[in-house]
User: Fold this.
Amino acid sequence: MSNSSSHNDDIFAATSIRDVVTFTNRTFDVETLPKDMYRVYKKLYAESGENYALTFIFAMRTAIELHRAWHMTLLTTKILQQIKDKFEMRMTWDLGVVRVVIRVEDGGHELHRKVPYDYDSEYQDMYLRIAEALIDGEINVHEALIYQTEAKQGVHTAKSGLFLRDFPGRLVLYPLEAATCAVIFFSGDWADAYVAAICGLVSGLIEYIIGLIGGDIKILVDICVGISTGIIGGLFYKLSGGQYCISSIFLGTLYWFFYGTAFVVGILEIIAGELQTGVTRFIAVSVKTFVLSLGAALGLMIATTRSARTVWVESSEQQCGLIDLGEVWWRVPLYILCSAAVLGQYRAPIVQYWRALIVMLCAYEVQYRAFIYLEPNHNHDNLDTSASNIAGAASAVISACILSAIVNYVRSAYKQKLLVEDNKTKIGSFVAKCMEYGTQFGSCIGIGRASDMEKLRLKAILKKQKKELRDSNHARSHYELNRADENLIIETIVGNQDLNVWSILMPALYQLVPGSIIAKLWFNSIFPPMPEDDKYIPGTDTVFSNLMVISTSLALGLIVGFVTVQAIGSIFLKTGCLGDVTDKHRRALGRVAGMYSVPITRESYMKVPAEESEANKENGGGEVKEPVQTNNEYFPVSLETATQDVEGGQNETTTVLA
Assistant:
């Protein structure tokens, strides 16, 4: 009985349920890897052991998915560096605009991927959480890789999210976003919103059909969407006798396809010193925007018998701006509806929309109010636009970080309740109870995950077994859980990691509309104002000057916001306001800096034989080895002698289209 009592005391003293529950063995199936990754895995396995090889695979998959979901090269680099430092990886990387290059063994093996940009707030958040849980040692590398695989399979996504994640369910978002954008951003009225909704649905069908065909034909999506929008908008204008605002219809429809955040990210990278990536991204997105604009102009030319330029100018002067948004009560509700459509485009979980909507509304209102306040004194310059953009972007960052801190606390309290941990507080218990009611409500209306309700069932099981363990007269000596319950615990642990700030910040930045404003400027190049037009401004290069004003001011706003948050966070850590400072706190603060600056890429670690590397065996920890001396952060001095193919011969540079 004394041994049993001692064992139970150990259970109650543990800080995490993972310390007291023996999980069944989970093994990631390496046979499912792409051929080139599998070859590198086998070579690394033979040289450095299984954990090292699997950690490299995990790091590469994390880099690919994060790069696809946000294209934030600065932040992805920061996360990769944290993985590299924790597990003493001998790897480097290049994150380009559409190409990811991962090297391991100091350039001995090199893998390439072409990664298309595809908004994905859910994966941004989820993949960062998985990496954080692995770095903290709360899950092992097999569990991390399995969780990544399950994420791609939709196991951890609600049914409502799966419906909007891909076609055909995704089609409902196109007309909603087009219609609301036409009114809230581009001076249209409700008739224009109706036509924009039709154009949006057609553009979604075009993207869906071309995606089904696949192959090289995908390059035609932008031009086909542009032409179809121009034809439909032109026909409605022609048949109605000129009763529509063409620019609001075009811009509202094409808003989906404008990578507005990429303009800002490109400027951010240039400011941070990543000139090649920043300039390439900036030019690439400018060209994409021009293709969409030119396609719409060609469609308008096809649909109208008159000069397309004449139609564009007459429509802009006579049919646009008929609604004064400052005088209507529904401006904010319409903006929220538009933002909800954008969150669907970003594949954010519906149950989490409220987080991003708070940040988006805060950024929009600050930008809108600042512009209205400054505009009367700045009719002949762009300082009102610059100042309002800086204020809007900075407020988005600060509100997103504050909200993230609140969500992190709430999730931590809820996790303690779900896993029946002892270190609960009265406030934490109240918050957790509210979260439980919220979970049940989300399940009732069909927007939550099925596993969220299963966790409440697991809580009852754990509570019952813990009570039995505390009873000295009961025969129970340990927790007994099945495989499904263990999976729920792992999902709870991963879900309890810090919220990815960028996943709720990027939609707000997108709504600050740099991409669509740039499209306006391209349309002014296609349909240049003449001296007799009301909007003619002599001697100004409006396209480039406005492009720089908008993108640079938003980028500066982000920097101001992140620097402010980092300064406040540093003060909190140094003064002990957050309690004991942990590596997790330092990593979180480091990621804030990684959102606007180039992280320091440390040199690789000395190679240690697999049988001698205790840190490798434990998948982290151990003594940090001396770094390899290199000429720069990417290539070792003896690269020529170190470079070899996994099967002998030349360095591997396989390219696989993602």
Remarks:
- The beta strands are 91-95, 99-104, 109-114, 653-657.
- The two ends are 58 Å apart (CA to CA).
- Confidence is low (pLDDT under 50) at residues 536-540, 609-658.
